[in-house]
Amino acid sequence: MVSQRKKIIVNSIVGLVVLFGVIFIGLGLHNKNQNKGQVGTHNDEWPRIKSEKTITIGLDDTFVPMGFRDNSGKLVGFDIDLATQVFKDLGVTVKWQPIDWSMKETELNTGNIDAIWNGYTATPERAQKVAFSNSYHRVTQVVVTLKKNNINSFADMSGKILADQNSSSGDAELNAKPNILKKYIKDNKAVGYDTFDKAFNDLNAGRIDGLLVDEDYARYYISHQDNADNYQIVKGDFSMTDDVVGFRKGDVGLQKAVNEQFSKLQKNGWISDLEKKWFGQ
Question: Membrane-spanning residues where (predicted)?
């Protein structure tokens, strides 16, 4: 009887030890995940990046001519060249990380990437989530259509199907300024695509009538098509927007370092030469 009681007591103690161990591990993992979700929110990651000599930058690797893959699969583009030069001068190597563009701010603020750099436009909504670098390039939104569609103005999109990229600056502009284009299009809503190349395929197939996109993207993409003469670029009243780099709000050192490099590369004409290379301007 005594031995049976001893056994019960021992088993109870063991059970409690295991239970407390599980709770302790669970709390540890919870705190670890919480900390990961707060990377850079309060702490500046620039010292770590300088020490590791590597920075991870998120991009949509189909976004010509800012960051995309050439026929060999190599990442090329205006932003690829610019970021590489900026961090080369800072003694840091860039690791490019393709991401779901609709999740870009989440990827940044959870620490999966250190910056967003890929034709990333400064908007009031994005400013609530991230910190911006100084502007390094300006662009406007246009509608790309086929000449056979006879669309020569935004008003000609009346009742027509418009497409854009999910969570893009174009989509934000469309919704923020509905009287410019949104009021004309079918159902007053754009069809969203993950990437612009898929939208262009549907434009060519006649499944959509127009595509809202950065003018840089539009001109570069069209110039590299065999049927370039079939396309038309339609401009409206969308204002010029600023391309910036997105940082976590706590990364003030990283932000300052990049801004200083931008200032230097703008003053010595390097960025101007790069714009001529990629945009012909």
Answer: 9-29
